[in-house]
Specification:
The complex is a heterodimer of chains A (550) and B (711). Chain A has 550 residues and is an all-alpha fold. In chain A, 63% of the residues lie in helices and 2% in strands. Chain A has one domain (3-542). In chain A, the strands form 2 sheets. Chain A has a two-stranded antiparallel ribbon. Chain A has a two-stranded antiparallel ribbon with strand order 3-4. In chain A, α9 (283-301) packs parallel to α17 (511-535), α10 packs parallel to α11 (345-357) and α13 (399-425) crosses α15. Chain B has 3 domains: 2-101 and 203-285 and 593-708, no CATH class; 109-142 and 147-193, Calcium-transporting ATPase, cytoplasmic transduction domain A (Distorted Sandwich); 295-313 and 481-590, HAD superfamily/HAD-like (Rossmann fold, 3-Layer(aba) Sandwich). At the A-B interface, α12, α13, α17 and α18 of A face α7, α10, α23 and α25 of B.
Chain lengths: 550, 711
């Protein structure tokens, strides 16, 4: 990295964090239900929705009800999207006459989009109809981050002093979409259209090139899909080539804009966290920890220079490709503007770190949920050294709390490691030509890490469209998404109304704690994954590789 | 010579007992309570099997180096043994200190009166053997062993440690004597009204058996983390073994097991129980019996300490510092009157008045009339005391001023002094200003002003009257306990707020509180008020510690998070409290809080240290995991460990760190009082950062040693 590149990194990240800080008060109001001027516009729409589905908006939910409501809503959406994928061949809005997906790919797809993963074992432009792209994919791309944010907000409510319930899922979900995701993505879409991203449902264009050959150009409602892809930590693209494709990312300006969008909401939620708690200072360690780990990820990522070559768009270049990859995995968005194959072992190592930590700042909602898990675990382990029984926000951490946290922490390695071994022992890896070496192992390990972290980028793409990978990653994505949410909501629910101690122990809003938090997260994550990283990207690094081709 | 050798002998016996005990604890059935160590023991058995029959392990024991397996197994066994040794040592230590406490308990000796017909027999017995209904004889300067009812005699009793009331109380037949109070004049016969409560001694016995000691909430939570980490590392090792088999990486099972055991939080797993037990032992050493481990932990969390002024902040005695005459009288007259009225007042205050008068040279000429005087003892109803004696006229007295100066002041010789010619009788009384106001005809203008002036300075005014006329005042000042200001400053530094409870007037209370640096105080408090104060603080989510001794304190002691009862206190108080100070020193409540913090810090420090250690162990073992098939991983061997010694060095370090930390676990980490975040930062640097760095050095050192020794 030279000085200009470092300046780009600081400028883009700094500007994004600043915007995130500015919109945090607005986002907070969405969940505190504080009245504001825009209620006049949104209230009627929301009330109509509540009336239609018969929701009593004044009723709060306990953690079980909240979680199960969210899960059921998600399951219903998955069922709808599943049918669309399965039967897109006979459904309208299919000018290219694509046939329906096979059941395991359809299953993988719905779980992938519903869980905010957007792992794509297909190429959109040659597989999905307009109906699938909009009614299924785009619909889930709004619902998934809305679910994630709602769950995170519900979790925060449990920590609030004097809270009586975790809120109402229907309300949080609706308000997230109506007041946050829709307006923002419409705004961004317009900007993208201005920047040259197509937005059309008139069918693929057929043009005659200057060489006199007829060529079919895939266009569609790309701008609207692209905006929510980046804003909502989704990452799935309209095209198999994702953001390397000019129609999704036509210019340097769009590249920088789209890159920043990934960081925007996860960062804003960090500030919302403190505001919702009524203790703005508590955002500080979370922000410092998330951003210092992001910084560490960038340092690791740029350890090896990525040069122009196969898999790198000439117009984007090695630097912006690497930068994008690091930010994309740091927010578990998983979108790419270059091929993962072209990435250096150090950039891939950085991606692995993000997918293991999941809070750098992580995906919208889940990034925060994981961070709170780390905060409580850290407070518990090191807090005793302040000479008091560990407490977070004045809440004494009991054996049960620690049990829940440990459970949430242990699920991630289990759902990554077990299927990784299974891929080899069942011969599924060999079936798609993956060898038993550092490169092969890295790819398999990446596949499941990406699925478990609901990240979505992968080495395989359409190659992994086999029953084993479709089903295995579907299970991993599902558990990786809902299990930690469920556990952290259970924790929050049990804290609800628990006795608060006078906060006089370890100060969690201090810089010292932020530093200890970073150290503790990195040590804990390395302890779990270091041997496997050593067999994958670290080994590739020591073998002197520059990319993952071959 | 005998005693030191005997002590040495007993130390050897207790050490050998601990050693034997530690070996017994190696049984898997007793180890199962410690999940981490139980798993290490299972690992040991597997490696033993590998050493016996390596072929049975197929591709996981391809090298078949039996010698290596046997070495690994031996180190694993030592790892487990070090853990049981730590337990056994901690238990032995607790048992030893508990035993010495029991001896201390029996050292309070009292006289029992046995009536047989018309004759009386006197027997001395340790207070623990006195039963309800026994008749006891308590002489001057003796301690009342337990609550009793006076049968015969009248005496002044000092209850200041129990009730906080500095003034001595007169006890007559029918009055209740409080256990722990001290008779300061005369002799009393009384009947014991309570049974000795030995339940806390029984509690103590239970606490020192580590196997019977219930785990505290915090220990349970740490155990959960340890189990969680164990589960994670189990998944990791099983996956690694699976990958090694699937990719044919040729890893050896013994090396996987070595890595597994090194990653397991063995250090804290081995020492957790010993740390808790040692925390209780450290209280025992300060002669404090905790009824549960929880109480010790809670002590570390205390936000508020209720401190009784008397006995905790002040020594309970006040000291005369000034004589203030009223209009028409001089200082000498007041000083001499005070001297005379205090001659038979054997309270510390009375003595301090005599001392001050002597220092100022106000020795009255009536000193030789004292033996003929009439004494008015202090009584609760009049709240005054005094003397009636013959006044000596200056002119007639023989010897004159010069002579008097030569008299060496001594009570012994007072009676032998030359008698002067008696003239008139004079009555001198002293007492609280409002009490004196009640017995004089009128008070001078400045009476109230001086009273207020003294009170507002936090001092105590004593008025003096002579023949029904108020002549002046004595200024009495509270005497601070030694070191109390430093202790209070330490408490405040650590974020603990002291609240002073006193029966004094608001002004007096404010002044003392200000002097020692206490911001909150409750004046005019009765012992029963403590309950409300504890409740009010708890309602604000504060954790409250308090001291108590009287029966009045029992309700407050039972609701307080940490209740420290004085051994000299009443049985209900001792029963309600969760700790008992056998030395009955209320100031020790501050030490209890520090000990609680030390226990929590020690536990947190060793937990952090244990987890931080793992980083280095990875860098030591991962490079050699697949040494044969993936030599490139040697690049991670940043320590440059020998290919054949890396695993053993790491395992040896992992085992050796346990005995190395046993002294720390048993002694507790030392700390200087500081604010919470400073303490945290210091510990985090030493045990967190140090915990990451130390094993790199330690493992490398052992590795060099192994290579030199060619093992």
């Amino acid at each position: 990295m030279d000085l200009i590149e470092i300046s780009w990194v600081l400028l883009i990240i700094g500007a994004t964090a600043a915007v995130a800080w500015l919109i945090a008060p607005y986002i907070t109001k969405i969940y505190t239900h504080e009245s504001s001027r825009i209620d006049r516009i949104f209230d009627p729409i929301e009330n109509l929705i509540y009336r239609t589905i018969g929701v009593d908006k004044n009723r709060g939910m306990g953690w079980k009800e909240y979680f199960l409501t969210g899960l059921s809503v998600n399951l219903i959406m998955m069922a709808i999207a599943f049918s669309i994928f399965l039967f897109q061949g006979v459904l309208p809005l299919n000018p290219q006459h694509f046939s329906g997906l096979n059941w395991n790919l359809a299953l993988n797809n719905v779980i992938s989009f519903m869980t905010n993963t957007d792992l794509q074992h297909y190429a959109g432009e040659s597989t999905l109809s307009y109906l699938s792209q909009t009614a299924a994919v785009q619909f889930l791309m709004f619902s998934a981050p809305a679910t994630g944010i709602s769950m995170a907000v519900a979790m925060i409510r449990g920590f609030r002093v004097g809270a009586k319930d975790l809120g109402n899922f229907y309300l949080d979900f609706t308000r997230t979409i109506i007041r946050l995701l829709l307006p923002l993505s419409i705004l961004v879409s317009l900007v993208l259209v201005v920047l040259g991203v197509p937005q059309s449902i008139s069918g693929y264009a057929v043009v005659r090139t200057i060489e006199g050959v007829t060529q079919q150009i895939a266009i569609g409602p790309i701008a609207s899909l692209t905006s929510i892809t980046q804003l909502g930590s989704n990452g799935g693209g309209y095209f198999g080539a994702n953001f390397a494709y000019p129609f999704q990312n036509p210019s340097p300006v769009s590249d920088i804009l789209e890159l920043s969008l990934m960081l925007l909401l996860p960062t804003a939620l960090i500030f919302v966290f403190g505001r919702l708690l009524g203790k703005k200072g508590e955002s500080k360690p979370v922000f410092i920890a998330a951003y210092s780990m992001l910084g560490i990820n960038l340092l690791i990522g740029f350890l090896q220079k990525v040069n122009l070559g196969p898999g790198i768009e000439t117009r984007i270049g090695g630097f912006f490709s690497t930068f994008w990859t690091v930010i994309s995995t740091s927010t578990n968005t998983g979108s790419l503007n270059a091929s993962l194959y072209a990435m250096s072992p150090s950039a891939v190592l950085s991606s692995f770190m993000s997918m293991f930590i999941q809070s750098t700042p992580g995906a919208v909602g889940t990034g925060l949920i994981y961070m709170i898990m780390y905060v409580i675990l850290t407070v518990f382990i090191v807090g005793l050294m302040a000479g008091r029984t560990p407490e977070y926000l004045g809440i004494k951490i009991t054996a049960r709390d620690v049990g829940l946290i440990m459970l949430a922490f242990i699920i991630h390695p289990i759902i990554i490691l077990i299927p990784t071994i299974l891929a080899y022992t069942t011969g599924a890896a060999a079936q798609i030509g993956i060898g038993a070496n550092a490169i092969g192992f890295t790819k398999i390990f990446y596949e499941f890490s990406s699925a478990a972290a609901n990240n979505g980028s992968d080495f395989f793409g359409i190659l992994a469209n086999t029953p084993f990978f479709n089903i295995a990653t579907a299970i991993v994505m599902f558990v990786g998404r809902y299990a930690p949410m469920c556990i952290l909501l259970a924790l929050s629910g049990s804290i609800l109304g628990r006795k608060r101690e006078a906060m006089s122990g370890l100060r969690t809003d201090s810089l010292v704690f932020a530093v200890v938090l970073v150290g503790s997260i990195i040590i804990l994550v390395l302890l779990v994954f270091l041997p496997f990283l050593a067999l994958g990207p670290i080994l590739a690094f020591f073998e002197g590789r520059m990319n993952f081709f071959g | 010579m005998g005693s030191s050798e005997a002590r040495k002998g007993s130390r050897i016996t207790s050490l050998s007992r601990a050693l034997l005990d530690s070996v017994k604890r190696l049984s898997p059935f007793s180890l199962i309570a410690n999940p981490v160590m139980f798993i290490v023991e299972i690992a040991f058995f597997i490696v033993v099997l590998m050493a016996i029959y390596p072929v049975g392990f197929g591709p996981l024991a391809e090298t078949g180096e039996r010698g290596f397996y046997a070495t690994v197994a031996t180190i694993l066994l030592f790892t487990v043994w070090f853990s049981t040794l730590a337990d056994a040592l901690a238990e032995q230590q607790a048992r030893n200190t508990a035993n010495s406490l029991r001896q201390l308990e029996t050292q309070v000796i009292s006289t029992i009166v046995i009536t047989e017909g018309w004759s009386r027999k006197y027997v001395t017995k340790p207070s623990s053997e006195i039963k309800r209904g026994d008749v006891i004889l308590v002489k001057k300067d003796e301690i009342v062993p337990m609550d009793a009812e006076v049968l015969e005699g009248i005496a002044m009793v000092d209850e200041s440690l129990l009730t906080g009331e500095s003034t001595a109380v007169k006890k007559a037949p029918g009055d209740v004597l409080i256990g722990g109070s001290r008779v300061i004049s005369d002799t009393l016969t009384a009947r014991v009204t309570v049974n000795p409560e030995d339940s806390y001694i029984k509690q103590m016995a239970k606490m020192v058996e580590s196997s019977k000691r219930p785990k505290t909430a915090n220990e349970k939570a740490i155990t959960v983390v340890l189990i969680g980490l164990t589960a994670i590392f189990s998944v990791i090792i099983l996956t690694l073994i699976g990958i090694s088999l699937a990719l044919r990486l040729g890893g050896d099972l013994s090396v996987f097991i070595a890595l597994y055991v090194c990653l397991l939080p063995t250090t804290i797993g081995a020492l957790l129980s010993a740390i808790g037990l040692s925390g209780i032992s450290r209280l025992y050493k300060r002669k404090i019996v905790a009824k549960s481990g929880k109480a010790v932990e809670t002590a570390g969390d205390v936000d508020i300490i209720l401190l009784d002024k008397t006995g905790t902040i002040t020594v309970g005695d006040r000291e005369a510092v000034e004589f203030i005459p009223f209009e028409g009288w001089d200082e000498r007259a007041v000083g001499e009157a005070a001297f005379l009225s205090s001659w038979y007042d054997d309270t510390p205050e009375g003595r301090s008045i005599i001392k001050l008068a002597y220092k100022r040279g106000y020795i009255p000429k009536e000193i030789n009339e004292l033996s003929m005087s009439k004494i008015y003892n202090f009584s609760a109803t009049t709240r005054t005391s005094g003397i009636r004696l013959t006044e000596v006229n200056d002119e007639i007295r023989t010897g004159g001023k010069e002579n008097r100066r030569r008299w060496w002041f001594s009570r012994k010789h007072a009676d032998k002094l030359v008698r002067s010619t008696p003239l008139t009788e004079v009555e001198i009384m002293k007492g609280a200003p409002d009490a004196i106001r009640g017995i004089v005809d009128s008070v001078p203008m400045e009476f109230d002003r001086i009273t207020d002036e003294i009170s507002s300075a936090g001092e105590t005014p004593i008025a003096i009257s002579k023949d029904g006329k108020a002549i002046g005042m004595i200024r009495l000042k509270d005497v601070l306990k030694q070191g109390v200001m430093g202790k209070i400053a330490d408490l405040k530094l650590m974020g603990i707020e002291p609240i002073m409870i006193t029966g004094d007037q608001p002004l007096t209370a404010e002044s003392i509180a200000h002097e020692v640096g206490i911001d909150k105080y409750v004046p005019r408090a009765k012992p029963a008020d403590k309950y409300d104060i504890v409740r009010a603080q708890q309602a604000e989510s504060k954790i409250v510690a308090m001291i108590g001794d009287g029966t009045n304190d029992a309700p407050a002691l039972s609701v307080a998070d940490v209740g420290l009862a004085m051994n000299s206190g009443t049985e209900p108080a001792k029963e309600a409290a969760n700790m008992i100070d056998l030395e009955s020193n209320p100031a020790k409540v501050m030490d209890v809080v520090m000990l609680g913090k030390q226990l929590l810090m020690t536990r947190g420090a060793i937990t952090t240290f244990s987890i931080a250690n793992d980083v280095a162990k990875y860098f030591a073992i991962v490079p050699v995991l697949f040494a044969a098939t993936i030599p490139q991983l040697q690049a991670l061997n940043i320590l440059g460990l020998g290919l054949h010694t890396a695993v053993l060095s790491t395992l040896i370090f992992n085992a050796a760190i346990i005995p190395a930390l046993i002294p720390l676990a048993m002694r507790g980490i030392s700390f200087k009082p500081a604010n919470t975040m400073t303490l945290f930062l210091r510990n985090a640097l030493i045990f967190g950062v140090g915990g990451v760095i130390l094993p790199f050095i330690g493992i490398k050192a052992i590795d060099i040693l192994l290579i030199i020794l060619r093992i």
